[in-house]
Amino acid sequence: MSEEEKLVKEIIKNIETSVKEGLDEYSFKEKFEKMLKKYVESELP
Amino acid sequence: MKAILKLENIGQKVGLQTLEFNSGVVTLIQGRTASGKSRIIKSYALALSYPIKSDNLINDGINFGILKGEDAEYLPLVNASQEKATIELEYDEISKKVELFKDGKININILGNQKFLYSSMLVKNSRIHNHITTGKASFRWIVDEMSLAKDYEKIKANVLYNLDELTKEQEEDQPYNPKKTSKRGEIKQKKLIQKAKSVEKKKEVSDRVILEASQKEKQKQIDDFQFDEELVKKEKDTERKLTADEKNLKDITGNLEKIQRKIEELEKQKNDTSEIDKIHSKMDKNEQRLTDLKTDKVEDLQKEIIEKQNLRSVEEQEKVRFETRKQLWETVKIEEGNKCPLCESVGIITPEHRKSKINEYNKEIKEHQILIKDYTTEINKKLNRINEINTEIPALEKQQFIDGDKIKELEQATKASVDEIALLKKKVPNIKKQILNDEELIKKTKQELKLILEEKDKNSEYQKLKNESRRIDKDIGMIKERLIKIEDALEEAKSIELFSIKITDLNKAEQIINELEKIIHKSVIYLDNKIDEHRKGAAKKFNESIKNLIMELKFDTFKEIYLNLDDYQLKIIDNNEKLQELSSVSGGEKAIISSLLQISAKETYLSEIPFLIGDEIILDLDPERRDIFLNYLKKIAKENDWFIILTQITNEDLEIIEI
Question: Distance (Å, rounded) from C-alpha B423 to C-alpha B417?
Fold first, then answer.
């Protein structure tokens, strides 16, 4: 599984958890951006 | 099951009011107008729905009169005279307490469910009712609000925001603004900046190199220039000397003029003999007078006076003698035989004789009087003369002495002037000589200065070179400053921040953005599917409930009412299987549709909260359908063990609470 696919999977998991737990938009936003940041870091040498 | 509602300071009612409701039945609240029926409905709505976070629902809450609008000073449910109101609701082991404060603050111990306002309130201004009565057929909002589609929508908006932040292209004609530009746009702009700055930098570097070369050349010319640094000093010294000489000459010339003026003044003074002449003339006159006064001797004059006095005395005696005779003649009696009073001869004395005698004597007296007067005049003249001699001679002699002194003094002054003139005249040639010397000196200094200036003019080329050199220095400085700015801008344009990570390789950053774009797109596709799935699920459930309700109530007006699963538009199929537009159905039909949808929404989406409350809405139905509807409400109240609480309905076999 590529890094890209891994991230998509992780995002979806996060979406489902957020919805299940009663959506807290701020918390979701924070987590989502954290995942994107982590991905960017992993892509850099 | 019982529900106990305790209200304190709610609406118009001050103090505590306790109401008890039974589940499984429809309860009708009865009371006069403004007795507080709606207050009870509103209290239920607030206790069971608060807190309300949806913007749409906040407006509905304000319309219902349970939330405050922006301009409201206090919560509408709080009694205007009280600072605080409370709503307490107990049912099925649940105890809710809501405290409402005049300043808008609310304390609540158990959270309510927002869906309550959409699905459990049979009121005229509910959202469903408003949509139906205004002919708005789109009901996507209800499937969103009543399902998880709304949450997925919010997540999607968040995800898309990030996508937008990353990928939006920069518009060509818009200036670069990091705050408004997406990352991709920023990269594009930065690449353009890099390109532009690189060209600009090259140009600046070339300019600087050219200028530096030019500066070196100028410096060399300056260094080679044979410039006598002493020249400027000499010029200044000469100028100072010239100024001093000129001042000196001015002073000397001034001095000479002063002396010449003085000489003129003294000459004038010397030649002016009018005063002496005047005194001489005066002295001559005085001398003549003295001579005149001295011609008469006082002793002679005194002798003459005595002589004249003696003569006058004789005349006076004579005069007295004649006056006595006259007196005798005036007093003698004119009688015949009288004797002459003088000669005593007897004769005849007549008045004519007496008169003749008196006239004779008068004549004599007069002559003597004249003589006396003449003598007196002469005596007085002599006396005056003596007086003149005695007083004038000493005064004149004294004056002659003073005037003599004055003449001597004036003559001495004249002599002094002559001496001074001689002295001053003696000085003049020297001063003139000095002036000539000074003039010569000035001429010489001017000549020197002219030579220096001529020499300096030759060196103006040096100044030009120096100025040019300074200008080049300044230009080089400016170019250097600009280069630093370009370097900074280039440095800034060399990197981009993605999620607070600085990336110095813009191509790499662009590649990452493209990958993130793909990832986000995939996430959005997932979210779209989930949204669709939940919407459709909620709509299907809703449609099923409406269908069952139509069947249950046996409303023959419509064959089918449902939400279209593609666009969530409300579709109304009449008994002729014709599609009816919501906007074209009658008011009564709208009341039926609204009630059907409201009950269906309650059954579909919020069956777990055992309350359904209504205010006036059923009144819009015709009596037949009102009965059917009411019976259905009784049925579901019993089946679900719900509390169904209504106001404003015809009296049926309902539980009634009088307030």
Answer: 9
